[in-house]
Putative tricarboxylic transport membrane protein (Lipingzhangella halophila), 525 residues
Amino acid sequence: MDLFSNLLHGIASVLSPTTVLLLLVGVLAGMVVGVIPGLGPSAGLAILLPLTFGLDPVNAIVMLAAVYYGAFYGSTITSVLINAPGDAASVPTALEGYPMACRGRAAPALILGALASFAAGTVAAVLLALTAPAAASVTSSFGPPELFLLVMLGLLTMIILVGKNWVRGALSVILGFVIGTVGVDVGGGEQRYTFGSTELINGIPFIPVAIGLFGLGEILWTLYNGVHQKGSAPVDVRAKSAFWPTRAEWRESGPAIARGAPLGFGMGIIPGAGATVASLMSYSVEKGISRKPERFGNTGAPAGLAGPEAANNAAATGAMVPLLTLGIPGSASTAVLLGGFLMWGLQPGPLLMEQNPEFAWGLIGSMFLGNVMLIAVNIFCIPLFASVTRISLPTLAPLIIVLCAFGAFTVNGSVIEVGIMFACGFIGFFMRLYGLSPAALVIALVLGPSAEQTLRQSLIISDGSFGIFVSRQPSLVLLCVAAALLLMPLIAVPVKRAVGRRIARRQADSSESAQQDNAQEAERS
């Protein structure tokens, strides 16, 4: 009953005209950012974060959350119309949506994506309201040792899941830690790596780094890959039959959405997994159980679009669970949100829902209203967003770069921070070029000071003994989970090879039996 009343109170708290207007602005801004090739949720949040400094914390975070899940659908539009995923999580959408657009089904593909986003976002918001208080009650007893291990567990997950080469993921995390050490030592008070600069006494600011890596860096990477040279698919909005999905497409997409929403929310809760892993897993599931898997990636399968879209948006909401209850960002986008929390004096963690219930439940309640706005804007503005995708990226790129510089300057009015933004932009480009992860760097940069502080506190409590990490039951559980993550790649490789050999053996046996049947038929004839 308390849960239901808290949720109703949270929804009522965001029904003021000002908050509703900011929510609508956030959804629109997020979709526009997502529509621009090369940008995504992380870049949109980083660029627009400085524009919310004049707002009170609740309205600011509600607007940024709207930008967050609005941008996830914005990348769907570019994936379907010009085969340019805004981020890795939208790759399955491009694989199925673009072939549908090429055969005149662009508008139905966009509507299916919108409805999948709405349904999964609503389900995930309900699950968030159910799981966040429970998770907060469990973690409220955690001390510095457990908090340190949680941070390490999140970073370890990011390293393992960042790509095929875990060494590059580790290098990305280490680089984020190194940048986070600049400033004043939290223990002794001495300056570290400031090189005599008063601008660096408080450390390298988070906002210029995030804007550079995700804003400028992604634009440079997109131009380097030639995404701006791709054309757009036509969207026919005149004929009703060409605009709305058919009954067969509805029937195929419904079960895929029902499977993708809980899968995405579960993967979103795991720090480091997030929307990308959830989207790809959903795509694999839908292709594996489909009666016509040959359509996937060729003519376009509605289930292959709706399932990953549902998983994508549900994972975005699921990533809010570790952010709100543990203060650990589950993705690069929630790392930017965490930076906004800290700048407004809000400390996400086990006590957030007790000390700031209006803020926490208002944020959760805004997601229900935001999903309603998202579906309305998506359906009615499809022709408008289709026209935005026809604007050439060389025209948009200079405007985005100017906006990045303006956003970095408005934080503290510092030209040096603008220089940091440009430097991080080129660093982000070369990280993408050589297979490193800007997302892992940003998460490590945000969590680095917290990891250092909780480690120092743990060692002070234990008089310098590392035995405190094995003397407490919650710490032992977290260490076992970390050990399982470390063993996962070692187990996965031989299992994958064994499965591959078994599949190859079955294919060879089936081909031999087919040859024998053909030979017997030839003898009979």
